[in-house]
Design goal:
heterodimer; A: mainly alpha; 2 domains; two-stranded parallel ribbon; 20 helices; B: six-stranded mixed beta sheet; two-stranded antiparallel sheet; 13 helices; about 45% helix
């Protein structure tokens, strides 16, 4: 079930919330947890019930492994048990997410014809696998201990964070489910939760989905793009992704808060970053935390030589790249970020400085260009957009600028004839959103300073109403030639 | 403000307008998902006939005896003109060969019983496989899934886009505006006469477009196979098939582009699969008179009435004798020879 659906907003969320507090009000705390698990499994199965057994198996095996890791008498060493757990989780993810990618590459290298398995990717497998890997490692390190299966099931399945994170730690969540004070309705949390949830809904439905149209057109449909169109398309995707993902995270944080559960922050104005290191402290923060704690540091982190440090960074980002999707464009995106971070570290090590405006420009443009590889479904599409952005596919300016810039036609600049039917509208929207991203407080800051007054009520009501009314789009198809 | 008061205020700000908008969208019903008809929803803009008609069929469980299919040319034929047939006109803009089967099967499913008749208006343009590339609309499966989704007709009430269509329909209905290409609540589409000057411009544009896009890049598609599959899908249904009468200038253009062999193949395939067809697409007293046309390819609804009469055998004596020639295996070759002769082509 999607957060941005009528079923979720009008039925699932209110019903699950009301029943949860009704059960808790009777003092049936265990029953309330069972209800949360049932509701979460229903939420998960709504899209495709076929993957329900898989997530149940994954949770059961990881719970048993975690429980065994906590036992003093073991037939095999704790380290071996952890390795079994890692192999199980990575194997599961590897099979469902990467097997066809692997076969394609093997076929390509050895000119083989091994048939693809066409494995369908189970919903949320990347998130719940990483979360459980973190749990096993934490248990191995003595930082997590869970004896109760129900608690563990709630930790993994809690529906607000199940599908798209944030990726949470056992230790930051479980005390919240046990806290007696959190079993009671808290109107402050409900108000704040609604406030954040509807900000997220607006970001996803109104802003991200608007940009999605232009990005999809430019990447997937248009055969060729000119300079301005190339930038409109790439920036559209840059904003689409941010508002989509951070909007979804806001909805997760808001929905969890209704249950008195605080999820960790996941985005903090990443497009204001002044370096690539700064960017990764602001973008998908719980993934960055996972990569740092469970890959980068175990690899050695910044201990050892500079060469070792740079290698560790590259490995971490290559893994981060392929985690996002089974394709070489994702790997390359990870590679680009790895290289950027290596340069960033080298720059810092040598005590070099750059003024803030240049630093921001460089960081933002690098991130924007790297997203092209992240979004493109093929190298050809990525190159098409990049060629346009750097002027290799021609420069077209608006017809109205001809009287002032006609001399540019000597430089092969043409006027009018855009492929995008209406380039001005996206350009204006982009400027407005761009300023908002840079200057306005982000949703986490808005949550911090939230006050229940008429202004915030009208603001929340208005954005919620607009977003709900835009959940269903009915487009026009007029075609009179036939 | 206390937190619980804030929550109540927000919920009221959201829910009250939502209820009002849903009520208004339901009252005007621009997606044709409900049954009510009144003076304020009597004019309906056809913003996507595939979605609207699929919704209409889904939520109006009337058992129809006949199904009418075809492109925009057929949308202007009043389904009531097929007297004693209780027909539903499921024609949509630019319907392609590849769409017939899925829409026909879905219509039968919604009808709850086999149709006694399926009436098809065949278009020569649709035989061009490359026409597919000129289209940007979704496949029948998309619309069928969309309309069949849980709560579709109630969810769409909460839509800003639907509100905009509802507002336009309301304005047109309230002011009794007679606007071309709009429908009434009985699935009848409007096409009023325009001046000859306007018509000449449209015809010139049509001829350019067909000459450039449709007849220049022509590849005969899987016509026979599609028809055969359609007949196999509906073994207990009688097919009434006819070719759509385009205006003489457009027909002439097709011949000038050297497409007579493909035209013959189309007629032959149709006759061989369906047994007999009515051919309206030639030089005849209707197609040669531009008064009968809105543009080069769309005839006025009154011509649709004549077509309905011809193919259903009503008032035959009042119809122009040369309009709608019944073609079957026996007279096929002779008919095609006549076509070549009147077009000045050596068969």
């Amino acid at each position: 079930m999607l957060f941005n659906s009528y079923e979720y907003i009008f039925i699932f969320l209110p019903v699950s919330l009301i029943v949860y507090f009704l059960i808790n009000s009777q003092g049936w705390y265990k029953a309330a947890k069972i209800w949360l698990v049932i509701a979460s499994l229903f939420f998960y199965s709504w899209w495709n019930i076929d993957f329900l057994p898989l997530i149940i198996i994954s949770i059961s095996v990881n719970y048993l492994l975690g429980k065994s890791l906590n036992q003093s008498k073991l037939l095999i060493s704790r380290k071996s048990l952890l390795i079994i757990g890692l192999v199980f989780n990575i194997g599961l993810l590897g099979y469902f997410k990467y097997i066809d990618f692997l076969i394609t590459n093997i076929n390509h290298i050895f000119s083989g014809a091994v048939p693809l398995l066409h494995v369908v990717l189970p919903l949320a497998i990347s998130f719940y696998t990483f979360q459980q890997i973190a749990y096993l490692v934490d248990t191995y390190r003595g930082q997590a201990k869970e004896r109760d299966f129900l608690n563990y099931a709630v930790f993994v399945l809690f529906f607000p964070q199940l599908i798209a994170g944030p990726i949470v730690h056992h230790r930051e969540m479980m005390w919240q489910y046990e806290d007696q004070k959190k079993k009671l309705i808290d109107f402050k949390n409900i108000a704040t939760g609604l406030f954040i949830f509807f900000i997220g809904l607006f970001k996803k439905v109104v802003i991200a989905d608007t940009f999605a149209v232009w990005a999809t057109y430019g990447f997937d449909t248009a055969p060729v793009l000119s300079l301005i169109e190339g930038w409109i398309v790439s920036l559209s995707y840059t904003f689409q992704l941010y508002f989509d993902f951070s909007g979804y995270t806001d909805m997760a944080i808001g929905a969890a808060l209704l249950f008195n559960i605080s999820l960790p922050m996941n985005f903090f104005s990443p497009y204001r970053a002044l370096s690539i290191q700064d960017f990764w402290r602001r973008w998908h923060m719980t993934l960055s935390r996972f990569l740092r704690q469970y890959i980068y540091i175990p690899l050695g982190g910044n201990r050892g030589s500079q060469g070792r440090l740079y290698t560790n960074i590259m490995i971490t980002f290559l893994i981060g790249g392929i985690w996002h999707g089974a394709g070489w464009t994702f790997v390359f995106w990870g590679f680009l970020h790895g290289v950027a971070l290596v340069i960033n570290r080298w720059w810092q090590k040598h005590g070099l400085h750059m003024n803030n405006i240049t630093a921001w420009l460089l960081t933002f443009n690098f991130v924007n260009i790297a997203w092209v590889f992240f979004r493109a479904t093929s190298w050809e599409d990525a190159i098409k957009v990049l060629k346009a952005m750097f002027g290799f596919s021609g420069v077209i300016l608006p017809e109205s600028t001809f009287p002032y810039l006609s001399s540019l036609s000597k430089l092969n600049v043409s006027f009018g004839g855009f492929i995008m039917e209406d380039y001005l509208y996206p350009a204006v929207i982009m400027c407005v959103v761009f300023l908002a991203v840079i200057w306005l407080p982000n949703s986490m800051q808005m949550q911090k300073y939230f006050k229940p007054n008429l202004l915030t009520a009208v603001f929340t009501g208005a954005i919620a109403l607009t977003a709900i009314l835009m959940l269903t789009k009915v487009s026009e198809f007029l075609y009179f030639n036939f | 403000m206390k937190y619980h008061n804030w929550i109540i205020t927000v919920l009221l700000i959201i829910l009250l307008p939502l209820l009002m908008i849903a009520g208004y969208n339901w009252y005007i019903d621009p997606l044709w998902n409900f049954n009510h008809a009144h003076q304020y929803n009597s004019v309906q803009i056809a913003f996507d006939e595939r979605q609207q008609k699929t919704g209409h069929l889904t939520f109006h469980p009337e058992p129809y005896q006949a199904l009418i299919m075809g492109s925009s040319r057929i949308t202007y034929i009043n389904q009531a003109d097929f007297k004693n047939f209780n027909a539903y006109n499921y024609a949509v803009n630019n319907m392609l060969l590849s769409e017939y089967r899925e829409y026909a099967s879905y219509a039968r499913k919604m009808n709850g019983q086999e149709f006694s008749y399926i009436i098809i208006g065949l278009d020569f343009f649709a035989t061009n496989e490359n026409v597919q590339d000129l289209n940007k609309f979704e496949s029948p499966g998309y619309y069928i899934d969309l309309v069949g989704a849980t709560g579709y007709r109630y969810k769409t009430l909460l839509s800003l886009d639907v509100l905009e269509y509802a507002r336009k329909n309301h304005d047109l209905s309230k002011n009794k505006v007679k606007q071309n290409f709009t429908y009434d609540r009985t699935n009848v589409k409007r096409l009023d006469h325009i001046s000859m000057a306007e018509k000449q411009v449209l015809i010139a544009n049509n001829l350019d477009w067909y000459g450039d896009k449709v007849y220049n890049d022509y590849k005969y598609g899987p016509v026979r196979e599609t028809f055969q599959q359609l007949v196999r899908d509906h073994p207990h249904t009688e097919f009434i098939v006819f070719t759509t009468p385009v205006s003489a200038p457009l027909y002439k253009l097709m011949m000038e582009k050297g497409l007579y062999p493909e035209y013959c193949r189309w007629i032959t395939d149709s006759v061989e699969v369906f047994g007999e067809i009515y051919n309206f697409m030639n030089f005849n007293s209707i197609t040669t008179n531009l008064d009968n046309y809105y543009d080069a390819s769309h005839f006025y609804p009154e011509i649709g009435t004549l077509i309905a009469k011809r193919v259903t055998g009503n008032e035959q004596d009042k119809l122009p004798a040369d309009f709608g020639i019944k073609v079957n295996q026996e007279n096929l070759n002779k008919h095609l020879e006549n076509i070549a002769q009147e077009a000045g082509i050596k068969p």
